[in-house]
What does this fold into?
Amino acid sequence: MDKSILDEILRQVTKPVRYMGNEYNMVEKDPSKVLIRFAFAFPDVYEVGMSHLGMKILYHLMNDREDTYCERVFAPWTDMEQLMREKGIPLFALESKDPIAEFDFVGFTLQYEMCYTNVINMLDLAGIPLRWWERNEHHPFVIAGGPCAYNVEPLADFFDLVVMGDGEEVINELLDAYRQWKIHGGRRQDFLVAAARIPGVYVPHFYSVEYNDDGTVRSIKPNREGIPAVIQKRVVKDLDKAYYPETMIVPYMDIVHDRVMLEVFRGCTRGCRFCQAGMIYRPVRERSVPRLMELAEKLINNTGYEELSLSSLSTSDYSDLENLVKQLMERFAPQKVSFSLPSLRIDSFARELVEEMIKVRKAGLTFAPEAGTQRLRDVINKGVTEEDLINSVRQAFELGWDTVKLYFMIGLPTETQEDLEGIADLARKVKSCYLDVTGGQRASRLRITVSVASFVPKPFTPFQWVAQDTVECMNQKIDFLKDKLRIKSVEFDWHDPRLSFLEAVFARGDRRLGEVLLRAWQMGCKFDSWAEHFKYDTWLKAFQDAGIDPGFYANRVRAKEEVLPWSHIDVGVTPSFLWREYQKALRGELTPDCRTRCWGCGITRLEGGLCQ
Amino acid sequence: MRLVVKYAKQDRVKYISHLDLMRTLHRALRRAGIPVAFSQGYNPQPRVAFAPPLSVGMTSQGEYMDVMLTSGMSPQEFCQRMNGVLPQGIAMLKAVAIDESFPSLMSMIERALYRISLNTSGLPIEGVLKDFLSRSDITITKRGKKGERIVNIRPMIHRLEIVDRDEQKVIMEAMLSAGGRESLNPGQLVHLLLESAGVVEGSCCLPDIHRLDMFLRKGNRWITPLELGEDDGCGQADCGGYSL
It folds into this structure.
């Protein structure tokens, strides 16, 4: 690209550093000396995308291959997009500034449903034909991965292929297959056929979907020979042996998670019934303390970061956490490196641990009781009691915290008014605990934020069959809570229910929604998860124009027998386990942590980790 | 031990803000294993201070930072270690040890010298400049914490002259007030200059602005912060061989 034109437009946009590249540890290669050019695309702005651990892992993994140059591309903010369109600048990769339309692959990571219009917009801005059937030998393969890839059906028209599960091994197998194809030559379809034989690789258009008269799916079948009927996700068996980067790009701008991320384990054994991550990332696989110490040492030295976070779905479940934290503190506290432990569970919020941590620096605290009453917490299998919560906040207050955030969901299955009142009760109890601990001193400093989001039923969870509350119903509940939470020192905020509604539509959507996505994008929808860009009425019009009722996807109870749009995908956890869990939920029965005993979720069919 | 370090911010990094640059340098100090002193308290911060910030989009060969160390280190070693771990476009040019009792760079520095390259095709720039500088009052409205106030910036222009030109461009040098007490942004100066000639600044004629150095008063002389040094420090050749 002409650097002077880029320079001219960067002078006119907000946060030009988003488009600049040249960060410390960015990989530079001579593009003419590699066989494969891969654009790793994150369909949101730089500061969101750069916070994503999966990208950090795969970026360095691919760049360790001599035959491949992996570069990054993010969704340009609207001011930048406008200038790019005016000046005819196609979407380019940050490293080389070359147009991504010239690459071999454009790989999107799908982290949340409301980024789908950005995927379409980025393809358009790149000058890549939007649908797979419009592309030819001159175009990149447009591929996807990430949690939303497990039910990628609403985007089936747009992707050539999709990768399911842990990427560390399958991405190399895919690149090896591509290398063979590129060297030997062949048609576009030939590569896709070869790729579809790699376990974990899904080529949506190799499968035909038929529908019943009532709009539900009748069948999903391969439409050619040699293609598996079921796509099984990939699992990396041993995280100690799995690839992990020893360096990470250090952005100039303040990104959302601006620190070294040390993934201590993958998967979760708790079995919260609303949680998709807890199901799809099974089984639990831990990294060992020596391996983590080795990685921490290299990552801190190579990045110069002042903070390190121990990341996982539930970090306090790490089997040797105290030892790990102790070793990390001993090693890094003299260098003034601080630690953050996101996703601490209330019940194991260990005082000693926190005392250790705040020796260096003090961060905010969020507790997630998820529901207001014990009954409802049992329904969702949260396995946390009011006593756990109060004990934890008491400890926090005793250690000097004045600010806590409590996170809840509304619209959970079986929810009643009593459960909503329970949210306000808990907030009140947390407040009186504070007053008790502080003896009324520093009362003005207390701030309790109650944050609620509307429950979104997700595929591959025990609640994949349930109906979401309507937007009207969720609004009523929020109004009810607004009234109940008029408490001094308590702030209330909530996630827009209209956004949760659309999330629910696309999370459990089928291929017919591709038309809606395209229409919504054509009418200007993008950056939907950014409140200032969310155009709900436009979305409703897109559904109407496509002749599709969004309520069919969000607000409908599914029968046990229904063929779900993702029934050809095997994430390890079986539908029969999920159904059993759903029935137990309705009876309010708990399923304890599966480290205590095996509940037969099905994951052991896949080569597993700690499950045995 | 207190070091004053002169560094360059080149074209490749001209879009990073001052805050971003500070963070970048803090992390580079950690990567380089420099024994930086930290402040006390719950939220210890590295004791690194900076000279007056450079606006986003400008380049410089005369930036300064002021680093407090817990143990001794030669200025040469400091530059070498830092230059091994910096992103492309940021380079440590020279460091000197200074007396720890000096006030902050921000409060000592009073002037900055800029080189301004401006596309002036068709504009009688000499005349414009002459008229502009002949005014005794060039007022602007500054928005600050205490609300709006009218400021005369003419006294903040100590020198503004054309040093080179071709058919399309003129190169000017400007010595302007900079620092904690009063300062004039060269971007704003160009804007005012063009405005006085009736030119509405558009993307076509955005100037390239480059800071050459910063100065402080020592007795009746103007010196650069490096001249505060107790010893000669490293020669410029050791640190990348930059010269004005």
Residues 232-244 of chain B have pLDDT under 50 and may be disordered. The interface with chain A takes residues 12-13, 15-17, 19-21, 23-24, 26-32, 38, 42-44, 46, 56-57, 85-89, 203, 206 of chain B (CB under 8 Å). Chain B has five helices and eleven strands. The first strand of chain B starts at residue 2 and ends at 9.
